[in-house]
Design a protein that fits this description.
The chain is of the alpha/beta class. It has helices at residues 30-46, 81-99, 101-104, 120-126, 154-157, 164-173, 179-185, 195-210, 214-229, 232-246, 249-262; strands at 6-11, 14-19, 51-56, 109-113, 116-118, 130-134, 138-140, 176-178, 190-192. 35% of the residues are buried.
Length: 282
Amino acid sequence: MSYKSLTVEISDKIAHIKLNNPEKRNAMTPDFWRELPEAVQQIDNDASARVIVLSSTGKHFCAGMDLAVFTGGSLNEATELGRKHENIRRKVLQLQDIMSVFENVRMPTLAAIQGGCIGGGVDMVAACDMRYCTEEAFFSIEETKLAMTADMGTLQRLPHLISHGLTRELAYTGRRMYAEEAKQAGLVNQVFKDQEALLGGVMEIAAQIAARSPLAVSGCKEMLNYARDHSVPDSLKYMATWQSGMFQPMTDMAETFTAKMEGREPQFDDLNVIEPVIPAEV
């Protein structure tokens, strides 16, 4: 499909979503908010890829929220105060759901970050499975500089990625955290010299993931996300339940051993397509 704010390419089981509005430093425009969830959901529904790489164009990865999202429309209508605030709450929940698509999609998501990753950009990459960046990249929770509180996931997800103390410092001050500090803190897995090396390295990692059983990889993502939000005993019980239904030793595992004996790479079936819900006939 054709989009205004991004491009999507799928090759060798890798979906590459590229933010494509460098003139506005890839700010999150109204087009972005409409198109991003549609693109990710389409990849998930079609099972057309086994891993998703998120990158961008231009000098900066993402400048955060475009103010056009909050101008015009029902948010600025002169309505009764309670109803207006209910509408604002619902708007924030909708934006949070869009950021969560990277977390909820069945495939692993890898973010390749250059330049500035600011405000909503941090919300977005915090929802991805892994993050990689260039040497000049920086991360900034800018919202306190605008006299507001980050509200789309950074404050909820970042403490699971870096220390609570560092999260609080970044959120309270709005200062920039550059690549080397981000690497030491555990926010990014690896730092690359420039954007070309970054994309090459991330695509190589994505290819390694795409070569694995997509069912096994999807299971890893499901279990890791669940374990983050639940106790160890609950997570172990869920793991046992998942394994009892998803573990198929006569299919993907058998293919792994057969391929090894035959000296070739294993070939796995893709995940099933997610069929649309068909309403029952009246």
